[in-house]
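Hey team,

Filing this mostly as a record. A colleague (T.K.) asked me to run one chain through the structure pipeline before their review meeting, and I want the input and output archived in the tracker in case anyone asks later how it was produced. No errors, nothing strange. Just documentation.

Input sequence:
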Amino acid sequence: MPDTIAVQPFIDTFPSDAGTRVPDADFTTYGEGQLPSAVIELWRTHGLGWYGGGRVALVDPGTWMPVLQTWFGSGVTSVPFAVTSFGHIYHYDRVAGRDRIQCLDPHFQHNAIVSENGTAFFTEHLTGSSSHLADLRDLHKAARDAQGELAVDEIFYFEPILALGGKVSLDNLQKGNGPEHVADIHRQIAARRSR
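Output structure:
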């Protein structure tokens, strides 16, 4: 078991699931220039994968970057590093010398800054009562009971999509490839708007 780390309150609340894996040194070295030290520390001590019984995942930014490019354009400068079980994407950039962690909520077409500090993001935001993890705790449990555990890069979602009038209901619940589905939400909304 790793020693206590700066984001220990996050680990205490959302322990790493059995399938997490520590990435190789080249991967973490690349990440050092792109992400806050709290993310790199988690990669090195606990790894990529699901935490808290599949509620939030630390993800490979390369897998999820095309999703941000679909939503924000090819010039997007933020780097995705975590995803909730329902596809909310946490992404990081540095603007005017300040850290900025944002959350893209694809279901309601909303992107907001949730923290300006990597450690506080894990120890205060994610563990706090106003995060998506807190809001979706009961729904996550019901989704997992109905659909089973999520694999790497899978998410739960609703069909029809919520942004086009779908309902939050276990009858509409599915699970599948997260990057594909979150990008598809954007494409469906864009197609509807262009009519």
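Quick notes for T.K.: The beta strands are 49-51, 56-58, 79-84, 89-95, 98-105, 110-115, 154-158, 173-177. Helices lie at 8-13, 25-32, 37-45, 61-72, 118-125, 132-135, 137-147, 178-193.
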